[in-house]
What does this fold into?
Amino acid sequence: MIDYNSVLSEKIINVKPSGIRKFFDIASEMEDVISLGVGEPDFKTPWSIRKAGIDTLEKGKTWYSSNSGLMELRVEISKYLERRFRLSYSPSDQIIVTVGGSEAIDICIRSFIEPGDEVIIPEPCFVCYEPIVSLSGGKPVKIPTTAENHFRVTAQELRACVTDKTKLLILPYPNNPTGAVMRREHLQELADILKDTNIMVLSDEIYAELTYNEPHISIAELDGMQERTIVINGFSKAYAMTGWRLGYAAGPAPVIQQMLKIHQYSIMCAPTTSQYAAVTALKNCDEEIKHMVDEYNTRRRLLVDGFNKMGLECFEPEGAFYVFPSIKKTGLTSEEFCEKLLYSERVAVIPGTAFGKSGEGFVRISYSYSLNHLMEALKRIERFLKSI
Amino acid sequence: MDKLLKLLEQNARFTNEQLAAMTGISEAEVAARLEEYEKQGIIKGYSAILDYEKIDTNHVVALIELKVTPKRDLGFEEIAQTITTYDEVESVYLMSGGYDLAVTVIGSTFKDIALFVSHRLAPLDSVVSTATHFVLSRYKEKGVIMCDEPKDERGVSFL
It folds into this structure.
C-alpha cells in the first residue's frame, strides 16, 4: 500500500481545500433552495458570439492557434484596451491569450515568484491567489481591507506591508467578493509608492466592464505604471462566456515572453473556437454589455436597498455582481449565519470567510439572478432575520 | 421608454419603494409618475398571469381568425369594436397577412366556444369567414414560462 502523503508534493498537500464545498453540496441536495451563490453571469453568451463559434466549427477551423493566441484576436484585444481603458499594448509581443483569466493569473505569478518572495494580497479576495503564490514558494502577505475604507487598499496599508522581499502586488478590482472599486485617486496613491520600487502589479480586471457609477480605471493607465503592471482580463464576466474559458494578459514584452513559456509548455494555446468567438465579442458586442450592465445595476440597487432596510448594513458595491452585507448585528459568525439561513429558510449564500479571514462578519450575495428570484430571496432573508 | 414601465411589465407587484430603489428616483416621484401613466392610459391595468392547468376549473381558449369586409369610412374599426364588447373575448387584433382580425376567446368548454363562434361571431354582418383554433397547451404567457422553469445549471462557485 502506497502512503500517498509521502509521495505527493508537500506544497500541494499543504494547500487548504475549500471548507465550504461540503456545505454547498448539502445545499444542492435540498429541495426548494434559492441560491445566491454563483459567481457567473445568468445571461447566455450573446447569440452573435455563439454563432461565430459555430461558424468556425462548421468550417472545420479546429486547429491549434499560435501559442500566444490568434493574431486577429490579439489585435482586437489591443484595440479594445485602447478604446475602453486608454491602454496601449502591441498585439505581437505584449498580449497573450489564456485559458480564462485564471490561467493568466497562474502564469503571471509563477513567472515572478521565487522561494521567499513576498506577494501582497488585499483581502477579502478571490480564492486563487494565495494557493498559487504558495505553490510557487512565495509568501502571501495579506492586507485586510475594511468596510469603512470601502474595501479599498490604502497607501498607508500598502506602505506598511512593503519589505525588500516584496515582489508583487495583486490588485483585484473591481473586487470579488466585495464589489469594491478603486477610483483614480486611490490608485494614484498606490502608484506614488510603487513608482520608486521594483514591485510589480498583477491587476486582475476581470470585472472591469461591470461598474455602475463610474467607468473602470486601470492602474496601468497612470503615469509610470504600465512598465510595472500586468493587466489581466477576460471574456467570462463581461460577455457571459464563463464556459468558453478565455482570458488574456497584457504587459511589458519581457514579462509576457516568460509567461508565454509556461503557457506553451503546459497549455499550448487557448481553445481556438473560443478565440474566434471572442473576436466577434470584441468587435460587435458593446451594446450587449451595456444591456447586461443595466440589468445588473437594477438588481444591485434592489439588494443594497433591501439589505439596508432590513438592518444588514451594506456598503454600496460599485462593481462586479456581488453585494457584501455585514451580518455582525446578528451576533452570528459568517458560517453560522449561512448555515442557519440555509436550514431555516433554504437560501444559500457564501460566508465572507471563504474569501479570507477579514471576510468574517460578512456574506457574499450574488445578484446574477432574475429580479423575481432576488425578491423571493429578500423575503426569505427578512423572515429569517425576524426569527433569530 | 421609462424604466419604471419596463419593470412593471416584468412584475406589477414591485412596491413603489422597490421601484424607487431600482431606478434611483424617489418614492414620491415613482408614485407621481405611475399616477400620470394611469391617467394617460399608458398603463391600462394590472393583472395576474394564471396557470389554469393548476386551477380546478374548466378553461378553454381558442384563437379565431376572422375575415371581414371593411366598411366604407370606418374600415375595420366598427366590427372590431363590436367584438371587443363580448365578455368571452380576451383580445382582438387587426392582423396583416391572410386574415383580418385575430380574436382570442375564452370559455368553459369547447362547445361554449363553438356556439359563441357560430351564434355571435359568424352571423355578424361584415364577417366573411371564421377559422377556429383551440389552444391545447400554453408554454409561455406574457414572457413567463408556464411549464417547468429550466433548471439553473450553474454550480455554486467562489470565482
About this structure: The first strand of chain B starts at residue 60 and ends at 68.
